Amino acid sequence: MPTATNGKVLLRVRPRGFCAGVVRAVDIVELALEAYGAPVYVHHEIVHNTYVVEQLRRRGAIFVEAIEEVPHGAVLVFSAHGVPPTVRDEAKSRALKVIDATCPLVTKVHLEALKFAREQRTIILIGHRDHQEIVGTSGEAPDRTIVVDSVAAVDALEVQDPDKLSFLTQTTLSLYDTQEIVARLRQKFPFIQGPASDDICYATQNRQEAVEQVQSAIDRFRKGHRCEVARRRFARGLDRGRVRSGSPCGAG
Ligand code: SF4
Q1: 1: number of CA atoms within 13 Å, CB side?
Q2: Residues 123, 167: contact at Cβ < 8 Å?
Q3: What confidence tens digit (pLDDT) does each residue in 101-113 have?
Q4: Residue 243 near residue 234, CB atoms below 8 Å
Q5: How far is the CA of 19 from the centre of ligand 1 (A)?
Q6: Distance, CA 172 to ligand 1 centroid (Å)?
Q7: Residue 25 to residues 22, 30, 167: CA-CA distances in angstroms?
Q8: Given this model, what pLDDT does residue 5 score?
Q9: Which residue puts its alpha carbon closest to atom 4 of ligand 1?
């Protein structure tokens, strides 16, 4: 429902705010702080939100980028993005008390990667190479995974056996960009296999669709505003040569 204030219109997007995976991860850090006391180490910032991260820091969470920053035997939470097996092994070798807050939807993609690797397939992983989630997923089968982030990257792709290919996607990609990349993959490699169900998670999809609806509302609003200006100018005898009766704006 739009709200009008001082001539400005506020459109509230629904759904908005954190996804269930991130809410769950933040809850897990809070519960760990209650159960074990400070400090609780967290592998990567749990959420891209300075306010929430600062609140957790104040309560005793310490965010780290590498396992070697965590003292032996300390409590460590893995963020919702997931981690590669090498990070799990490092945590084990430092005798850390690990609490895994990986989002179940990310875990599902890890399991798909393992399944494809067991079938001796090459995995084309659609996503951003440096994103934590891609680092984690590609780590399940690093020798069998190729990361691509665009249609151009698919065009340049060369594989040994085009009949033993699979693709997976980062859960948080743009739905529309990904559809284009997948379409190009299927065109170039007709025997490529995809995941059993879409990997772009429902939370990402719902939010992208909500933003799209808002964009349409803004476009309609702008068009209405332009028409209103045209109508007023037409009524004042301005632009009569340019704006004809029966124009799309109905300025006549
Ligand atoms: S997979 Fe979806 S629900 Fe899970 S953390 Fe990522 S965006 Fe959130």
Answers
A1: 1
A2: yes
A3: 999 999 999 999 9
A4: yes
A5: 6
A6: 7
A7: 5, 9, 27
A8: 67
A9: 21
Give kind and range of the element (H or E) at residue 218: helix 202-235
Contact 97, 36 (CB under 8 A): yes
* pLDDT tens profile 120-179: 999 999 999 999 999 999 999 999 999 999 999 999 999 999 999 999 999 988 888 899
pTM (2 decimals)?
A: 0.82
Residues 6+ apart with CB under 8 A from 50: none
Which residue positions in the chain have pLDDT lower than 70? 1-5, 237-252
Strands (E) in the chain, as ranges, are: 3-5, 8-10, 40-43, 61-64, 75-78, 97-100, 122-126, 145-148, 165-169
> Residue 63 burial (CB < 10 Å; 0-12/13-18/19+)?
middle
Residues with CB under 6 A from ligand 1: 19-22, 80, 103, 105-106, 171-172, 201, 203-204
Q: Please check whether residue 154 is in contact with residue 148, taking contact to mean a CB–CB distance below 8 angstroms.
A: yes
Distance, in Å, from the CA atom of 181 to the CA atom of 55, rounded to the nearest integer, reads 39
Q: Hey, what are 207's tokens?
A: 């939010």
Distance separating alpha carbons of residues 77 and 93, to the nearest angstrom: 16
One-letter identity of residue 17:
G
Count of Cβ atoms closer than 10 Å to residue 56 Cβ: 21
DSSP secondary structure of 23-78: HHHHHHHHHHHHHH-S-EEEES-SSS-HHHHHHHHHHTEEEESSGGGSPTT-EEEE
